[in-house]
Amino acid sequence: MKEGFVKLDRRVAIITSHALGDTLLLMVIARNLLDQGAEVAVFGRASWALRAWFPDVDIRPLPADAQWRETLAPWDTVLQMHVHQPVRDLASLHHNVRILDPLTDDVSNPPMVTRFTEFCRAEFNLPAVHTENGIAPRAGLQHRRYTRRVVIHPEASTPDKRWLPQRFLSLARNLERWGYEVAFVMAPDELPRWNSLLLSRFAVHTFSSLDGLAGWLYESGWFIGNDSGVGHLAANLGVPTLSLFRRRAVAQRWRPAWGNAQVVLPWQWLPGASLKERFWRETLTCSRVLSAFARMTEE
Question: Which of 49, 65, 129, 269 is the right S-S partner for 210, CB 3.0 to 4.6 Å?
Answer without folding.
Answer: 49
